[in-house]
């Protein structure tokens, strides 16, 4: 869940806490240490998507669903069918685009999210497909407590658990040393059957951290469109000399959409003209490198687990290919 643009501003901040909240009235200092309240995601109002605005704007990030799916659908389906998968748990619902496609392709799908607005969008999509409804469950689910999700998990476990679109990187490392992320991955593993596969991705933070900019746009972003995103800033949050979080802020051009009349809209300069604009919530991302995340997965699933990584879902002809996303696939043994 991450829009990308070419022109960005980076700032760096050293802090004492792993994850900090940044409010409009308390802007980050560019130098020295800041002490801000620690984000507590147990409180709904502290979640990045709490006010529903992000969910309302999300279709502007995703763009046309058919165009988005054309970037990775065939490769994803091949991964599933090569393993004779039948049941899929999409733990990062969003608008429900991936889940809907999988139901249409004949899979039994369970979809969860922690955001009620995203869940409502998915339910709207499901309502348009009444003939497929029995194969698609939608409900609330917290990665750190999936056993209490408001859906019925299969007793035998899932064939595949899916977490894509840079979603996993939005989980803060509350406990440090990736213990929170490993706890979520353990929960995924428990719900997989033996031989089941987890497919989870993250942005190419290797390139971003090394070059302080996004990968060249010769390879398009497979998940999101950036046509309406501008004035992006990236704040680097460091602890002990390591970048522990990247906080992204950006404006969204809502011209000619239903959001144009939103009471929070401001007119801002873009490409020489004033456009109606909404400000995105600050969203922190955990900047995993590819090798780092592979190590986290193997800590949870075991060093001997069947594992491979795909650049942008490409399964062949990817020598010297610079991806926007690393897609990790690991099997429960």
Number of strand elements = 14
- Largest sheet entry: 7 strands, mixed
- The arrangement of helices and strands along the chain is EEHHHEHEHEEHEHEEEEEHEE
Structural category is: alpha/beta
Describe the global form.
globular
Q: Hey, roughly how much beta strand do the residues contain? A: 25-35%
Number of helices: 8
Low-confidence stretches: 1-50
The chain-level mean pLDDT equals 82
Q: What is the CA-atom radius of gyration, in angstroms?
A: 19 Å
What features would you describe in this structure?
The protein is of the alpha/beta class. Helices cover 23% and strands 28% of the residues. It has 8 helices and 14 strands. The chain has helices spanning 53-62, 65-69, 73-82, 97-104, 116-127, 179-191, 205-211, 290-301, and strands spanning 8-15, 33-34, 87-90, 108-113, 136-140, 158-163, 192-203, 229-239, 242-253, 266-270, 273-279, 283-285, 307-311, 325-331. The strands form 2 sheets. Strands 1, 2, 8, 9, 10, 11 and 12 form a 7-stranded mixed β-sheet that branches. Strands 5-4-3-6-7-14-13 form a 7-stranded mixed β-sheet, with helices on both faces. The longest helix has 13 residues, at 179-191. The model is unreliable at 1-50 (pLDDT under 50).
């Amino acid at each position: 869940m991450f829009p990308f643009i070419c022109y960005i501003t980076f700032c760096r901040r050293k802090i004492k806490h792993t994850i900090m909240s940044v409010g409009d009235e308390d802007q980050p200092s560019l130098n020295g240490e800041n002490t801000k309240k620690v984000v507590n995601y147990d409180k709904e109002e502290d979640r990045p998507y709490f006010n529903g605005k992000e969910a309302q704007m999300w279709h502007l990030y995703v763009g046309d669903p058919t165009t988005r799916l054309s970037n990775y659908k065939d490769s994803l389906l091949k991964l599933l069918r090569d393993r004779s998968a039948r049941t899929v748990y999409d733990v990062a619902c969003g608008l429900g685009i991936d889940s809907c496609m999988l139901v249409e392709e004949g899979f039994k799908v369970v979809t969860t999210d922690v955001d009620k607005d995203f869940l409502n969008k998915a339910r709207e999509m499901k309502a348009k497909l009444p003939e497929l409804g029995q194969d698609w469950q939608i409900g609330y689910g917290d990665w750190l407590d999936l056993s209490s999700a408001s859906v019925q998990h299969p007793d035998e476990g899932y064939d595949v658990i899916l977490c894509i679109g840079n979603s996993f990187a939005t989980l803060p490392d509350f406990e440090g040393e990736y213990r929170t992320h490993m706890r979520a991955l353990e929960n995924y593993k428990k719900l997989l059957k033996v031989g089941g596969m987890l497919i989870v991705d993250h942005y190419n933070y290797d390139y971003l951290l090394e070059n302080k900019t996004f990968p060249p746009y010769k390879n398009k972003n497979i998940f999101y469109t950036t046509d309406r995103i501008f004035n992006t800033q990236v704040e680097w949050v460091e602890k002990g000399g390591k970048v522990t979080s990247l906080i992204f802020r950006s404006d969204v051009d809502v011209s000619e959409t239903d959001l144009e009349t939103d009471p929070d809209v401001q007119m801002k300069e873009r490409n020489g003209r004033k456009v109606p604009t909404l400000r995105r919530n600050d969203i922190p991302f955990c900047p995993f490198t590819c090798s780092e995340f592979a190590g986290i997965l193997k800590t949870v699933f075991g060093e001997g687990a069947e594992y491979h990584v795909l650049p942008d879902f490409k399964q062949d002809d990817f020598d010297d290919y610079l991806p926007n996303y690393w897609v990790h696939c690991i099997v429960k043994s």
